[in-house]
Amino acid sequence: MATPLSNILLQRMVVEIGAKSETSLDNSTPNDPFTLTHAIAFAFGSGASQYDLVWHDTRLLAAGASEELDVAGGLTDAFGNTLTFDNLKVIFVANASDEAITDPSHTATIADLLIGGSATPVPVFDNAGDILPLGAGDVFLTTAKAAAGIDVTAATGDLLKIENNSGSLEAAYRIALFGDSA
Question: Which CATH number belongs to the domain containing residue 139 in this structure?
Answer without folding.
Answer: 2.60.120.10
